[in-house]
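User: Can you help me understand a structure? I only have the sequence.
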Amino acid sequence: MKAWSGFLVRCLSAAVLAGAPAFAWAIPQVFLVQNSGWMEPFYSDPQSSFKPLVGALAGSVVQAGDAVVLAAFNQSLPGAPSPRALLSFKAGKETVQGRVTQALRALDTARKPGSAALADTDLGEAVQAAIGQALGGKPGIVWLFTNNRNSPNNDQATAQRNREFYQLIHGGAAITRALAFPLRMPVKGEHYSANGLMVYAFAVGNEGSRALDALLAAGRVQRVITEPPARLKPLDRDTVRLAPRKVENAAGVRFATAANGVLRADVAPDARQPTARIEWNLENTMYPYTISSATLSARSVLGGEDRPITLASSRVSALAPGKPAPLGSTMTLPVAQLPDKWSWEALKSAGSAYVLPGTIQLHLANQKLELSQAFRQRMAALFPGDPLPDIFIPPARVQASTAVLPVEVRVHYGMGPLLALGGAALALLAAAGAAAYAYARPKIAHVTVEDELRTMRARPGTTQPIYDKAGRQVAQLKTTLFGHQLLDLREGAQVKLGR
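Assistant: Let's start by predicting it. Here is the structure, written out as C-alpha cells:
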C-alpha cells in the first residue's frame, strides 16, 4: 500500500497545486472501484453497467479544476498493494467520463499474488488509505463502488466486518458527511451473481461536506443516480425541515417564504409586539430513518434576542422520511431591536427595507431513530443474505439534533421622515444662506457731522473712523447685523446718527 499511496499523493498534490491559481474552489475527488473476487459478475457479465456507471458519475460530479484520482481496490497483500491508482489528473476541458471509462476498460477482478484464488476485500482499508494517504487528511470527496461484501482474508463474519466499516464512518472525525446509494444492478458471472451495487460518498472535512452538498443541490449526482441517498452521517443536525404551510398574520406583520428557503417577516415601522401563528409542515430529512419519538422545543434568535417559540405540540412520533407532519407555533418578533423611524439606520433604509437576520431553531431531544421497514426490504432484495440492514443503525450517542431555519425580519420605512429631515435641512441651509448674504452685503448709515449729512457704507462687524471738516477724527462708526453705533465720540464734537 505504501507504493500506491506515495504515487497517489504525488499525483493528487501535483493536480491540486497545478489547479490552485485558476480554480481556487476546486475540490479533490477520489474514486475507489472494488475489483475483488466478490465483484466477479460485475466484470464478467456482458450486460453489466458497472463500469459505465463509474464513468458517468465521475463525468457528472467532477468539475473543471478538480483533482481526480481513480483507483482499484481489494485487500492489500505483500506484492499486491491496494488500492492501486489507475488514473490521476486535473480536470480541464477534456471529457472526464471518457478518460475514466478508458482507464477502467482493462480492469478485471484481481487474484492473490502467486495464486489462482480471487482477491479478498477490505472496505475500511481502502477508505482509510484514500483519506489518510491520497487526500493527506485534507478536504475532499471519496466515492466508493462496492457490492457491499466486506470480507478481508475471506472472513465470512461479514456482519462484524461491516460493523468495523460503519464504526470508521460514524466514529471517524475525518468524515463529516456520508451518504449511501443502494442501486439495483442484476449481474450474473461464472462464479457469483448479484442483485445490487452500493455507491458511497464520503465528504472529508468541512469543505468536502460543502462541496458534496453543492453537487447534490445542483443535481449533478441525480443526473446519473436517481435513487435517493441514505444518510449515514451526520444524524445530529439538519434532521428535519420546516416549511410554512399557513400563516395567520397579526396587525403590522406579514410572513412569506423566499425562493432560497428563508422565512421573511415584513413588519410595519409602527407595529407593536407583532406576533403571528405559523402552521408548519415538519418533514423528516433523514432517509432511511424514521423518528420513532422525540421531544420538540423551538427558539427564535433575532437581533440579539433569544426567545422561546410556543409550539402546539412538544412531541413527535412515527415521523417517516419525506412524510410531513403538521406543527403549529406562535412567535413574537423583537420590536425593541428594530430601529426607530427617525434613527440613522431607518433613514438609510428609507424607500427600501431594513433587514434584521436571524434563525428559528428547532431542537429534538430524546430522539429515537429506527431504520424504515421499506429500506430494510429494499436492502434485503438488493443484497440477499447480507446482514447490513441490521447494523445500518445510528450510534447510540445520537439522541439529539437541531434544525435551523434562516429568518429575515424586514422593516419597510417610508420616505416621510427622510423628506421631513431633508426639508428641515433645506430650511436651515436657506436661513444660513440668507444670514451669510446679509452679513456680506454693505449696510448704509447716515451720519451728520457739523450739520453736514454724510452717507457711509460698511459691512457688519467692521468699524471705521469719522472725520470733521478739519480732518480730525471725531468718532468711529461700528456696524453690526442689527444696526450702527457711534464709538469713541470726541468731546465737543458735533456728530450724530441720522439727520
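Now, to help you interpret it: The first strand starts at residue 29 and ends at 34. The CA atoms of residues 58 and 221 lie 9 Å apart. Let me know which part you'd like to focus on.
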